[in-house]
Structures are given as structure tokens and as C-alpha cells.
């Protein structure tokens, strides 16, 4: 099983004291310009914004689609354990019709095959055409059609570090959050039902 990339230890040592504790992560670094403190702030702000949905407050998934698909750009922020891990994740083919490896647009439209921006609530686990998967509920006008579009978390063979290295990009989904089969179980276990997943172009903000 491949080990997820993670935030640099040097960056962690510079975290503000307001975080309460230094986040512990493995030493291998990701190329993300987002600092650990920024990820923690995004996670906490998202939890506060969606408090009416009563999401579980311990862990939040953050997909930063400002990064190219070859980069680990899905961050599991564990606020209780003080850990952040980074994973490869796909974007929709409708968000990148020329398959450049970069997300060019979001869409909430049915039939767009694009990724949708916004906060999601993780829902039930099931076994479908892609094996073990997790349903998602869109919480904002920008992703309100997630259930109708069957936007879910699932594994896909077109997502892997080897493909990212060989092609400079990974494959595209129909708008779902597709992960490497080697990392899927870890992601599903970390999120579980009732937690937030947030998708946007944060690094470009």
C-alpha cells in the first residue's frame, strides 16, 4: 500500500500557538502552498459554517483543486489527533475537457461530468459499480445536485502515484472524488458518515 504524502515538518514547527498543539505528520512533504495552519483554519471555518448540519467535528476532508491532479491535493485534517495527510484525488472530466491535469471549471449541472464546489456531508457506505464507495450530500447551491448526479467517493485504477509520475496527471472521473484503490480504505475510514468534505480552489484564493 502506498503511503500518503504529507505536510512538511518544517512548516508545522511554525504553527501559531492558537492551534493548541503542533500537528504531527510524516516527514515527506507535499507541494501544496497551503500551510498546515491554513488547512486547520479552513476545516474549522467549514465546521462553523455548516454547524446547523451538526457535522462530526473531529476530521474534515479538504480538496484543493487549485493544484494539478498529479499532486496530492486531498487533505485529511484530523483536528483531534493533530495530523494531516495528503492524497491524490481526481476531478471530473467536464472540469477539464482537454485533460490537461488542471481543473478549469466547476459545475453543479446534471450531465456536466464536472466537479462541484462547496461543502458536502459524508453519508452512507455502500458497494456499487466501483466497489466500496461513500455517498455525499451537497450542502450548498453550488453542489446541491450531488445526490442526483451520484457524486460519491470511490476508488479508481486511473488514480495512482505511478500514473501521476508517468503521465504528469491522473485520470478523470464523472465528477466523483476518485482515490487510489490503495488509499481508499484509509480515506473512507477517516471520513466515515456525518463529516464534512470541502472542495474549492483554495490555493488560488
Name the overall outline. Answer: globular
Please indicate the count of domains. Answer: 1
**What would you call the structural class?**
alpha+beta
**Total helix count?**
4
> What is the architecture at the second tier of CATH?
Beta Barrel
Number-wise, the strands total 9
Quaternary state of this entry equals: single chain
Topology as a string of helices (H) and strands (E): EHHEEEEEEHEHE
The CATH class designation is Mainly Beta
> Strand count, sense and closure of the main sheet?
9 strands, mixed
Structure summary:
The chain is an alpha+beta fold and 205 residues long. It is 18% helix and 24% strand. It has one domain (5-204): L,D-transpeptidase catalytic domain-like, CATH 2.40.440.10.
Amino acid at each position: 500500500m502506498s503511503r500518503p504524502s504529507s505536510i512538511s515538518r518544517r512548516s508545522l514547527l511554525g504553527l501559531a500557538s492558537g492551534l493548541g498543539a503542533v500537528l504531527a505528520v510524516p516527514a515527506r512533504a507535499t507541494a501544496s502552498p497551503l500551510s498546515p495552519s491554513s488547512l486547520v483554519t479552513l476545516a474549522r471555518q467549514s465546521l462553523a459554517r455548516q454547524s446547523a448540519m451538526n457535522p462530526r467535528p473531529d476530521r474534515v476532508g479538504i480538496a484543493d483543486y487549485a493544484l494539478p491532479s498529479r499532486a496530492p491535493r486531498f487533505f485529511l485534517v484530523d483536528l483531534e489527533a493533530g495530523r494531516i495527510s495528503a492524497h491524490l484525488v481526481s476531478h471530473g472530466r467536464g472540469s477539464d475537457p482537454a485533460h490537461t491535469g488542471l481543473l478549469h471549471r466547476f459545475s453543479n449541472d446534471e450531465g456536466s461530468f464536472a466537479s462541484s464546489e462547496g461543502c458536502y456531508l459524508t453519508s452512507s457506505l455502500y458497494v456499487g459499480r466501483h466497489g466500496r464507495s461513500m455517498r455525499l450530500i451537497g450542502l450548498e447551491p453550488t453542489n446541491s445536485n450531488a445526490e442526483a448526479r451520484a457524486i460519491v467517493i470511490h476508488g479508481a485504477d486511473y488514480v495512482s502515484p505511478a500514473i501521476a509520475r508517468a503521465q504528469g496527471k491522473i485520470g478523470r472521473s464523472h465528477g466523483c472524488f476518485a482515490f487510489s484503490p490503495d488509499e481508499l480504505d484509509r480515506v473512507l475510514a477517516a471520513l466515515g458518515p456525518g463529516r464534512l468534505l470541502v472542495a474549492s480552489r483554495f490555493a488560488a484564493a
